[in-house]
Design goal:
Structural class: mainly alpha
CATH topology of the largest domain: Four Helix Bundle (Hemerythrin (Met), subunit A)
CATH class of the largest domain: Mainly Alpha
Number of strands: 0
Distance between the termini: 69 Å
Number of domains: 2
Strand content: under 5%
Order of helices and strands: HHHHHHH
Length: about 200
């Protein structure tokens, strides 16, 4: 659906431009057809993914599952990193990008409503720090600097583990939070709203 939307967006832009260009005289029929293609393209690009809210909920759960399992995999790679050749370490780090980073990046917006803005910012702020350390590990491995690659990989695991801990440390955004109540008046005391 997205590919069709992109193709129609490009075609609509070209057709609309050709029709609206002042060659000898603008052809408003062609320009209108181009505009119609643009509208259809935008609708297709904004069309929700199949499955609607249920798919978004499953997507959010998939992201949480990936996020929770990522530190263990980083630890496992860190444990055997010293015995790996740097090209092999580089390949393992690249596989992490495909297995974890891309799906988490694609699915994390679905968590915003589930976690609430502040909790989302706390969790993904820490996750982003771990993600940067993972990118640093990849870069160090590509530059043939093994000690820095291993150290960055270990820092990445620590920071992503902290993000996972933040995920479990706070109540969900929709949890009942007791509101602060004013102390009850003493018996026999008149209240401000009491008409007597």
């Amino acid at each position: 659906m997205r590919t069709i939307g992109i193709v129609l967006l490009v075609a609509g832009t070209i057709i609309g431009s050709l029709g609206g260009a002042k060659l000898p005289q603008a052809d408003w029929t062609v320009a209108g057809a181009g505009f119609a293609l643009l509208v259809v393209a935008l609708l297709l690009l904004r069309w929700p993914a199949k499955g609607g809210a249920g798919a978004r909920e499953r997507g959010a759960q998939d992201v949480l599952s990936l996020l929770r399992s990522m530190p263990d995999e980083l630890d496992a790679i860190s444990a055997r990193a010293a015995g790996l050749e740097l090209p092999a370490l580089l390949e393992e780090l690249s596989a992490l990008d495909r297995k974890y980073l891309q799906p988490i990046a694609d699915g994390s917006p679905a968590l915003l409503g589930q976690l609430g803005a502040q909790r989302f910012a706390d969790v993904f702020g820490q996750y982003a720090s771990g993600e940067r350390q993972l990118a640093r590990a990849w870069s160090a491995a590509a530059d043939q600097h093994g000690p820095e690659a291993i150290a960055s990989l270990q820092r990445s695991a620590e920071r992503i583990r902290e993000a996972v801990e933040l995920l479990g440390a706070q109540p969900p955004a929709d949890a009942d939070v007791p509101s602060a109540q004013a102390p009850s008046p003493e018996p026999g005391a008149a209240s401000e709203t009491d008409p007597s």
